[in-house]
Amino acid sequence: DVQLQASGGGLVQTGGSLRLSCEASGFTFDDKVVSWFRQAPGKERESISCISDRFASTYYADSVKGRFTISTDNAKNTVYLQMDSLKPEDTAVYYCASGGPTASSNSSTYNNWGQGTQVTVSS
Questions:
Q1: Taking residues 16-32, what's their average pLDDT?
Q2: How far apart are CA 97 and CA 85, in angstroms?
Q3: In angstroms, rounded to a whole number, what is the distance separating the alpha carbons of residues 85 and 74?
Q4: What is the pLDDT of residue 20?
């Protein structure tokens, strides 16, 4: 069975760093697009970053470009999101998701979701 588990959230000050992890079971990332989304209270779910090893491509939203880095460790079936220079605007629940090779930044194109992990950035 396909399962995703997100972890690594916490409370940090402005300018701090966190690394989120998403562990997968039941499949490998070889044939999947894996993405991070976030949702703040009262806000729509937002695509943050995507990665496809098969097509050697990555995507970053303008709001996080230059501060966040997505990567995979296929031997561990894990995708990471390194978050540096955090801002209060980054406060949200962060979700990892996987989809087929045609998945995009549209959340409806993903069929597997992790449970989410809370990130809070204080000023």
A1: 87
A2: 24
A3: 27
A4: 98
